[in-house]
Write a structure and sequence with these properties.
Helix content: 40-55%
Strand order of the largest sheet: 10-9-8-11-12
CATH architecture of one domain: 2-Layer Sandwich
CATH superfamily of one domain: Ribonuclease H-like superfamily/Ribonuclease H
Radius of gyration: 26 Å
Order of helices and strands: HEEEEHHEEEHHHEEEHEHEHHHHHHH
Amino acid sequence: MMVDQRPERALAIYAKGSQIKRLDEFTYKVKSQSGNGAYLVVKTDGEWHCECPDCRFRGVVCKHIRSVLFSQILRGSIITSSDAVLPSNESEPDECEYCHSTRIVKRGKRHNKRGLTQTYWCKACGRRFVVDLGFSRMKCSPQVITASLDLYFKGISLRKITDHLKQFYAVTVNCSTVLRWIQRYVALMKEYADKLMPDMADVWHADETVLNVNGQYQWMWNLMDRETRFLIASRLTRTRREHEATSLFLEGQRITGVVPNVLVTDGLGSYASAFDQTFAKKHTRHIRKPRFIDKANNNMIERLHGTIKERTKVMRGLDDSKSASNVVDGLRLAYNFTRPHSALNGRTPAEAAGLPSLGEGNKWKALIQNSVEAKEHKETPAQTWRRRIIEGAIRRYLDGESNGVNAKWVLKQIEYLKKNGMTDGELREVLSRFNNPTLFVFLHV
């Protein structure tokens, strides 16, 4: 009688480490022991299934499924332990960053300021690389950096953050170091977030609040979606004139690619003039000066300003316009991506707007990693071909080279490219390069 060796092999897979990657509660990716690729292990209708031949053709519980069950048992015991602290390591790569081969192995470690970093070697192209998810060459760990970001945008001062890090993380840093972390990662995440396209509803709310910038009052304009609570756009200006309100509305249209059916504002005259220039001809209804008891009141965006003041009142004023803009951008990221909303059943506004979920854990770390991966994403030949075609079409449309180059001709080009795989994100990125908000009407095809 033959002994089933699958449990021992499953334990060997788990004991090796970095072989099992948890995608979600019911989906795992287990690397092949031969080093060629990985298998997807999925739980459907209460049963586990694997892509490997052993499970597909023999119908048995393979070693990959058993290794996942081992990891679940250990993970459950760690999480339920009150004294356990989950370690946080760099994520394991699935492929080579140069040739995208899955034939990668660990080979040595590199010593940097933070400690030892795992080095990987690709068997296909023979090149070595390390995983860079936004925290390489940083002296402090991702937990310390992201905890500082979270505390800062929850209203804690820089000196109190450094005191917190010293007490609970045994890390001694200067206030200026924490400020540089904030400036660096807010700029990185903003670049990524500006390329995303949230799904907006029909009702938008606009309002402004005053901030103290170097002893002078400046105005922070905010534009919010009613259904998802997503903060669409934020701007910081010195005055409250018509052109500044117009820029806010155009920026909201550029980010979302749509026009609202209803716009709710207070009685500021700049809103009425800006509305006439942007949304009036697009059949949008403007509700001005709503009462507190009205269904379409402006209470939710007034509540947003209370959340913003939780941060700014601790600072007792911002130093200059540059630092103020950085704080405004960071507050928008924190509100949209990291702050669960009770009116959205515990979801963040970004999740309610259909953007990728950042999981239940460290949302700041996940957002930074997504930003780095998006920045390092290399354009495929097909994407380059589509980008060049649409860029040429838009240039000819703006230049008006011939009578045949009109909006209808551009729409036909876009329809052709979408049949060949072009996404709304690719089109939106190309249109944003021309710095012409009127071009975003092409997103509706």
